[in-house]
Amino acid sequence: MSRRELREQIFKLLFRVEFNQKEEMPEQMQLFFEEEENQADVADAAYITEKYNKIAEKLDDIDNALNEKVQGWNTARMGKVDLTILRLAVYEIMFDEEVPTGVAINEAVELAKKFGQDSSSAFVNGVLAKFA
């Protein structure tokens, strides 16, 4: 899989956090990879799982950072798709040294165009500009 495809898979797995308890996520992860559209080879599945776990560990820190930077909004008010995209991108900006900030922002905007509403890409870009 390409990096973009891997990031999209991480986004889809991370999106499940909004609808499941933390204790349910190992089972959700197993179900995720059983779905035909999410099947991945061993190396890609390991990468997706590892990055998801790293993001999940930092969710409170990521949400706190988002709430500090975004005036007039908070994570409780954000759409679930936008929030998930922002969480992934903020993780990459703050904690993943392998991903340049510009790449994280660009990829987040692309995810917003694909999965979000019409205004999602502008919203995501505006929020992430505060992290750049």
Structural summary, described in words:
The protein is an all-alpha fold. The chain has one domain: Orthogonal Bundle (N-utilizing Substance Protein B Homolog, Chain A), CATH 1.10.940. 69% of the residues lie in helices and 0% in strands. The protein has seven helices and no strands. The longest helix has 16 residues, at 42-57.
In whole angstroms, how far apart are the ends?
27 Å
Can you tell me the CATH topology? N-utilizing Substance Protein B Homolog, Chain A
| Residue runs with pLDDT of under 50 for 5 or more positions | none
State the CATH class: Mainly Alpha
Percentage beta strand? under 5%
> What's the rounded overall pLDDT mean?
93
Q: What structural class is derived from the secondary structure elements? A: mainly alpha
Assign an overall shape. globular
Domain unit count = 1
Give the radius of gyration. Answer: 14 Å
Largest sheet: none
How many beta strands in the DSSP annotation?
0
- Helix share, percent: 55-70%
Count of helical regions: 7
CATH superfamily: NusB-like
Question: What's the architecture, going by CATH?
Answer: Orthogonal Bundle
